[in-house]
Design goal:
By secondary structure, the chain is α+β, with helices and mostly antiparallel strands. Helix content is about 35%, strand content about 25%. The protein is built from four helices and three strands. Strands 1-2-3 form a three-stranded antiparallel beta sheet. The relative contact order is 0.22.
Length: about 110
């Protein structure tokens, strides 16, 4: 029997295409885990409507409650904090990957990227 659950939050993979400075327009795929609040349908519909208009950081940022597997440029673990969240949400390739994973998490699907 299938048991319905209504989680408060879920950890979900975030895949990002990191641009390489190789002169050829290449990217390298990187992945980490992010914990998102899980939204009821009415609230999710409002968020999806906002994302359809603009892919800004503020729309999804309030639903991010943690991460695992992120490091700074020196290889030190990047601890989840409001300041570090602002920092990563200013990076366009991070924003794209996070927004895609947020939607996939809410819909229960794995992105093929």
């Amino acid at each position: 029997m299938f048991s319905i659950t209504e989680p408060d939050s879920l950890s979900w993979p975030v895949k990002v295409n990191v641009p390489t400075d190789d002169g050829e327009g290449g990217t390298e795929e990187a992945e980490f885990q992010m914990r998102f609040k899980y939204l009821p349908v009415p609230e999710l519909n409002q968020v999806l409507s906002k994302l359809a208009v603009a892919s800004d950081a503020a729309t999804v940022k309030e639903y991010i409650i943690g991460w695992d597997g992120l490091a700074d440029q020196d290889g030190k673990t990047l601890v989840f904090s409001p300041e570090n969240l602002d920092r990563i949400m200013r990076i366009s390739y991070m924003l794209v990957g996070i927004n895609r994973s947020f939607i996939d998490c809410q819909m229960g699907r794995i992105s093929k990227n």
